[in-house]
Amino acid sequence: MSDERAVNARTTYRHGDLREALVEAGVEMAREGGPRAVVLREATRRAGVSPNAAYRHFTDRDALLQVVSDTCLGFAADRIEAEFDAHPPTGDAEADARMMLRSVGTGYIGFAREEPGLFRTAFSVPDNLQRAGDASKAGRRGRTPFQLVGLALDALVATGVLPPERRPGAEFQAWATVHGLGMLVIDGPLRGLTDPMIDAATERLLDMVDRGL
Amino acid sequence: MSDERAVNARTTYRHGDLREALVEAGVEMAREGGPRAVVLREATRRAGVSPNAAYRHFTDRDALLQVVSDTCLGFAADRIEAEFDAHPPTGDAEADARMMLRSVGTGYIGFAREEPGLFRTAFSVPDNLQRAGDASKAGRRGRTPFQLVGLALDALVATGVLPPERRPGAEFQAWATVHGLGMLVIDGPLRGLTDPMIDAATERLLDMVDRGL
DNA sequence: ATGTTCATGTGTACACTGTCCACAAGAGTA
DNA sequence: TACTCTTGTGGACAGTGTACACATGAACAT
């Protein structure tokens, strides 16, 4: 019963939860070096297990990366929800809905800046509309980032800020805008700008979305 | 003088222009498989040269990828300029300026869809504001994509569509938006959507920029 | 308790990668 | 003609993903 979970030393032949251990190791590597740093052999090493053991849980190195990537998306969702919590409803339904959409944006960018490795990893694996709401990509509260944008937009429609006829597909506009900014901040021309400058750029961008949606 | 350029067979000891040949090989690999497919040894193989010969021209595999990436950005610029050409000025300066910005967007997305591998490669290497206008990233007409957005925005200011006080930093908004859509189309939730659907999403996004800038 | 089964981990091996080192070829110059 | 410096070669090594055959032991049926 002395189940040394996180520690790589183990006495039993069976690991206990190797799959989870590999994913956690993968996330840690991704945090430091992005998707390229997610190395299968290194993950098994950190889990204190032989390289081939990984193949009992993942068909491929890419399969591991896929799961790691999904996990990272879940973290992004958590970060966005944290932003929600930081701006609780005031009672002004319209302003609250607006703030909700902004929170998606600021949370998203915050995640990109605080965890660039995880951010890059989250979007290094091809996705599609079917998988966008997949439970494996959800955060602690069970929602994916993509669903969170949708929620914010629904609130905008409910309070009459956004005309219903503009609702369908609106997540793509909001998403693309914020995602683009995230990429620019991490790997693009905006790299190395000071925090206040990035904050300003974020605010302007969200203003644009607010006006133009 | 029988300089068999593109062919990998060569008679002389010296290659002639190995550096260029390696870059071209790299671009071809990037076209098929994105940045991960840019393999140094394979490039030398295609150039008909031993693996280590590459190190006379690039310090690193990453150095090669950097140059390949810059080249891809140049292609993106070409694609955008082609979109300019497809929509020549009509005489209505205001409408022309608007169309110019739209062309940046449609050209950009067009490039992403037509050459996903090159697009991914172009943005796989970290960049910064200093390098954004670097000549190595320019297209045939000597302008980088980033500079082309700037040009379009300048035209909007010149025709009075965009208030001058909003000009500084506006390329970041335009760029982020379009870049984000590009990523969504290639690797994100919008992957696999039909062309008309993507066209519609692009139009809506550009409308948003037009309204909200 | 005992034997069997089958998921899970091990060991060996191979092809392939990036990269280091010492050496070779030969174009350009003294 | 001899010397030099750039460019390409050959061999080697560590590290990676992954295939195959084998070992272990937890769970379950007897």
Characterise this structure.
- The structure is a homodimer of 213-residue chains.
- The first copy, chain A, has 213 residues and is mainly alpha-helical.
- Chain A has two domains: 1-58, Arc Repressor Mutant, subunit A, CATH 1.10.10; 70-212, Tetracycline Repressor, domain 2.
- The first copy, chain A, is 60% helix and 0% strand.
- Chain A is built from eight helices and no strands.
- In chain A, helix 4 (93-114) packs across helix 5 (116-122), helix 6 crosses helix 7 and helix 7 (170-186) packs antiparallel against helix 8.
- The longest helix of chain A has 26 residues, at 61-86.
- The first copy, chain A, is elongated and about 60 Å long.
- Chain A starts with 17 loop residues before the first helix and ends with a helix.
- The structure holds a DNA duplex (30 and 30 nucleotides).
Summarize the entry for a quick read.
Two copies of one chain form a homodimer. With 213 residues, the first copy, chain A, is mainly alpha-helical.
